[in-house]
Amino acid sequence: MATTAPEDEYTAEPFLPSHGGLTALRKAAAECRGCPLHREATQTVFGKGDTDARVMLVGEQPGDQEDRQGEPFVGPAGRLLDRALAEAGIDPSQAYVTNAVKHFKFTRSGPGKRRIHKAPSLREMTACGPWLAAELNLVEPELIVVLGATAGKALLGSSFRVTQQRGALLEAEIHGHKERVVATIHPSAVLRADDRDAVYRGFVSDLKVAARALD
User: Fold this and answer.
1) What is the phi/psi pair of residue 142, to 5°?
2) CB 209 within 8 A of CB 93
3) Taking the complete model, does pTM exceed 0.85, yes or no?
4) What is the DSSP letter of 166?
5) Does a structural domain hold residue 5?
6) What does the pLDDT look like over 132-176, one tens digit per residue?
């Protein structure tokens, strides 16, 4: 049985298949032991969508519901994302959605020891990078929408600040490819906001920038 790599060698690279498409990637990712996050998570949560999608949406990591169901963005944040995409003029069914990290990282707290999201470390994001690079190579999107600060750091580097760079059409080299990128907040930030309506309008406004870039 595969074991987790030593901490200074965290990487998913040895688990990537040598050939095959999205199905092969998803099957291989289910066996990934490239960092310790697989130990507590229910399962790997890989990306979903059409490999011919024009836009790729990249979030941080699976949440509690995603971890249980095995698909990204199926919880409340995912439903809000679909609504905001449609409102901005992007068909959610024609997007490829994934996360920078493929396993749910959490801590237990409160009555019943509820699983509470915990942000992945830079080392864990870097370890998971080969999966995201493989997805980009397969999908070859015209545009990447980065959802939140953690996904932004994973794709654009540690200096990324979502508050400074959101809502603008950026160009960046990501995993060896020149990509067009629009950054915005993670939909879960809308759900946590005190002024949810205003934050949601800002989120949709950012996504409209992405929609115009696809015209």
Assistant:
1) -75, -25
2) no
3) yes
4) B
5) no
6) 999 999 999 999 999 999 999 999 998 999 999 999 999 999 988
